[in-house]
Amino acid sequence: SRSDGSSSFNLFGIKAGSSWHGDSVAKPTLEYRNGLAHREQAHFRAYDDLGAGFDDYVALLESQARYSKALQSEGSGARFASALQEAGYATDPDYASKIARVIKSETMQRAVTELKLSSPQPINLESGSTSGR
Q1: Which of 34, 45, 47, 62 pairs with 12 at a CA distance of 20 to 30 A?
Q2: Is 40 marked active-site?
Q3: Stretches in the chain below the pLDDT threshold 70
Q4: Cβ(8)–Cβ(1) under 8 Å?
Q5: Residue 13: how many CA atoms within 13 Å on its side-chain side?
Q6: Burial level of 39, CB count in 10 A (0-12/13-18/19+)?
Q7: Which of 4, 23, 31, 86 is an active site residue?
Q8: CA diameter of the chain
Q9: Is the dihedral of CA 87, 89, 93, 96 positive or negative?
Q10: Which position among 40, 48, 49, 56 bears the catalytic label?
Q11: Is 94 among the residues known to form the active site?
Q12: CA angle, corner 94, sides to 50 and 81, nearest 5?
């Protein structure tokens, strides 16, 4: 969230490095270095809306070759998360297993069910995509 409490719409925890020229928010975070957890302050990208956050996430993954294996993974969100972790997307050694737990959670299952009922495009939870994309 931003300092005024409004959302930064950064669902993917993308940091605002030196190449980022948009808005950002400073937040405490837990980073792992050499297997040890360290608390630190980091700057994260901030967006005007969810669409901009999703668009930037896709652009980030597509612009860096190290994520190509993740983008080519098919069939499961857990495999995608594991490939992201292997590529160094997150420093948390449990990143992929945490994402897999979220995917399997009752809350996510309900959300996907609601989306399936309201979306004009079929949604496949296992692949994490909609058809036609």
Answers
A1: 34
A2: no
A3: 119-133
A4: yes
A5: 11
A6: exposed
A7: 31
A8: 46
A9: negative
A10: 56
A11: no
A12: 50
